[in-house]
Amino acid sequence: MLNNLLRILRYTLVRGIILLITVVVGVYLTIIIANGGGYVDEIREAMIREEIGLQVAGNEALRDLTLEERRAYENRLIEIEMERRGLNEHFLIRSFTYLQNGLTLQLGSAEYLLSDSGSRQVQNILGERLYPTLLLMATGQLLLFFISIVFALFLSRRYGSPIDKFVVAMAPTSAAPAWFFGIFLILIFAGILGWLPFGGMVAAPPPEHWFLRALSVIKHLILPVSAIVVSSVFLVSYHWRTFFLIYSSEDYVEMAKAKGLPSSVIERRYVLRPTLPTIITSFALTLIGLWTGAIVLETVFAWPGIGRLTQQAINLFDTPVLVGTVVIYAYLLALTVFLLDIIYALVDPRVKLGVGGDRA
Description:
Elements: H1 2-34, H2 39-57, H3 67-84, H4 91-103, H5 122-156, H6 162-170, H7 178-192, H8 210-248, H9 251-258, H10 263-272, H11 276-292, H12 295-300, H13 306-316, H14 319-347
């Protein structure tokens, strides 16, 4: 018992260290790329010089100074501002400072973007956009996941039936992304029929009563959620249906059928249970996707989430916001993978916990 506990602790520690190193490397590369290797900082320096130059030129109190004195005063202000922002150091040194701030979630202020309340703090901006993304992606992805699992079990019992052939034929349509289907849904249900809104999260102006506001949000959710489900339901159902068929053809399943066990018991004990690690993995990665949003989908539906915020930050070279989204995603992904490793060791005895081949 003690040896098993020590193996689990050693395994957990090693996996945690590896994931931490992965997060650090990923965030650092993001900082380098988002800053253009120092190019964005050069733009900031140029903007500081221009802003201070305009301030000095428009300051009536400096009219009596000579040109050299005004330049010296201007250069001094530039040096103070550059030092305050840490731009007086080499980019390599600054990059490690950015890395430390990012890993500790000291995200600072955005360069251009603002929150709805007018704040430049990255934490406030991300906090406001997180709820819409969670609402949209949780509704769409979780609905897609559970519909696909149930539908795949249904198809596995009817292999070769007309509906099974229809799903197989429709699976290639999932090559198109959700936003592609979203455009057609908007055209049909918003443009032609006028049943649903074109985009946004709530009607403008928003209803004052909470119940009417909730109904408005649900109405705005229908099209983007439908786009998420329609874009992948056939392919995901086909994937799980094939997976379940493989396990349904095993000898122990045939033996269970020969014993006369009910179909529900056979599916639960002999089909779903062996696939549990894969289902857990798929579900965990689905949860990760809830936080990231979908850049193009949220842009098409004008949904005020993290995905649309990321697209705006990319267009504006707003490095703090970009780094903030990546850091949060990296932590969530690492935490999910870490928990998956522990869960695997508990639900699947084939997972090795030690170098010598020790198992749970």
